[in-house]
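Filed under: proteins

Residues; backbone shape codes:
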Amino acid sequence: MQDQENKYKQLIDNTISYITDPQIWINILITAVKIALIYLIGKMAKKVAHKTLEKIFRDRERSPLKWDERRSMTIGKLAKNIVNYSINFIVILMILSQIGVELMPLLAGAGVVGLAVGFGAQSLVKDVISGFFIIFEDQFGVGDVIQVGNFKGTVEQIGLRVTRIRSWTGEVNTIPNGSITEVTNFSVHNSLAVVDVSIAYEENIDQVMSAIQETADRLFEKNGDIVKQPEVLGVQSLGVSEVTIRVICECKPVANLVVERQLKSEIKKRFDELGIEIPYPKVVTYQRMEKVES
């Protein structure tokens, strides 16, 4: 019993001696100041890095070989995130070293864990790497109309792991970047509206082509989506009961479907004004009259 009391008293004395030791508090204060300085330097480094990246992208936009605004925003945001993660990781390691944590065993253990996770999550790593190259190669961007496999629609979000595509009927499709092997981007270059117009064989082809050209020219003047004067190519095919004439219009990206509908509507109205017949199935009935003997 006496031994226990002595040990308890000795523990109290050691604790009081430790707490009242000025050198201990000086070391704690120095460590706290170092941690605060490391934190502040990290924040300043992030601000400087962000300002540098913004300046780089501003200079890039003013150069003759500038990127488009969509790509600059996407890459700029990704670069800032990478800078933030990198600086935060370094700051955490430096703070741990100040409080006495051995970094070498920690880094070695993290490397082993990272290797195990890498083997267990190969598809995740593949998605991230694919997303990285999609962004930097500018294969497509937010707002582009693309087709990936059976999915076609407008890109709503591009991440390092997944891409979200909204179809024209409203469904949102989430596609892992690693499964994107072929992409068709409809928003990069101008599109082409192609309209085939069928007329009856009895109609005058030159008159019909002239009417189509006038109608397309009027639509070109009032429709800003058409970037080049429409062209009537001529007779496309000779069918069983119709002659098909083709007209084409170069339009802004993804505007070809709307222009095709408008052009068909205007041509139909013009044909009605001129009395030009659009062929439709007809049935001719012959009635055989038998002679009745008296």
Observations:
- The chain has three domains: 2-120, 139-185, 191-274.
- The chain has a mean pLDDT of 81.
